[in-house]
Amino acid sequence: MSNSKTILDIAKRTISIEADAIKNLSKLLDQNFADTVHTIYNSKGRLIISGIGKSAIIAQKIVATLNSTGTPSIFMHAADAIHGDLGTVLKNDVVICISKSGNTPEIKVLVPLIKRGGNVLIGITGNMNSFLAQQSNYTLNTFIEKEACPNNLAPTTSTTAQLVIGDAIAVSLLELKRFTSKDFAKYHPGGALGKKLYLRVNDIVNNNQKPEVSADTSVKGVILEISKKMLGATAVLENNKVVGIITDGDIRRMLNKYDNIANLTAKDIMSKDPKTIETDVLAVDALEMMQKQGISQLLAVSKTNYIGVVHLHNLVNEGIL
What we know:
The protein is α/β, with parallel strands linked by helices. The chain is 48% helix and 19% strand. Strands 2-1-3-4-5 form a 5-stranded parallel beta sheet, with helices on both faces. It has a 4-stranded mixed beta sheet with strand order 6-7-8-9.
């Protein structure tokens, strides 16, 4: 049975082989890559990406990345294409075919059909002497010395190289399109990723209760308000303006400091000049502020008017943290 050291050695060797191959990719880039990006960028159609076997799986991932960054793309399996799915390709579409060898039977059948339709064909292959490379309008070289597989058979290094080229295309297009975080948010409205890009403090605060006391509220009244609203703090207000905050920590410090609390009021135990945040600020920025200040809640305000409390737990529940 292999021991842990042997397993780690295998993993490190695999990573090293693939890392070297990726590093070499930059040396293989030429004008074909620039022409490919410009062709896709200027296209009036969509980008169709095809492959077979493991290359088909890579093609699907590249399609997903491109769609999420503003380049409309469709996956078309090479085997399905020659059995009816070729109708996916429209007049102005650009087609990318991915194949390590560039000579698989399905690719050899598909390529002439794409060429007959007049579509621009881009080949991604590790064999620059292959049928795919010779027939493509532009060819992107993903040559590798060897697979990470000890038998040099299982697609490992080759598929990693294909994936990296796909990412390079996507990022190049992203920058040419001046694709911003706001654009990104439009394509990622769900999940934690999307929320980081669009969720604002106001979206959270409005779902919380609104703890507040006056400066003259008794300590008992303060404790009851904090307990009732369950946010671990309350704002201290005068004319709806924030003058302080009282947290669970302030209550504990009060008990350590005073033997008799019967006559104490909110203004005696509150922390002055509390950290506040405008309601139109992104929730992720609220998180950054909490982390920087070492606190777990912020008072949300709108033009100095108190709106409510945003708590660290809110951000956890939303998946921001």
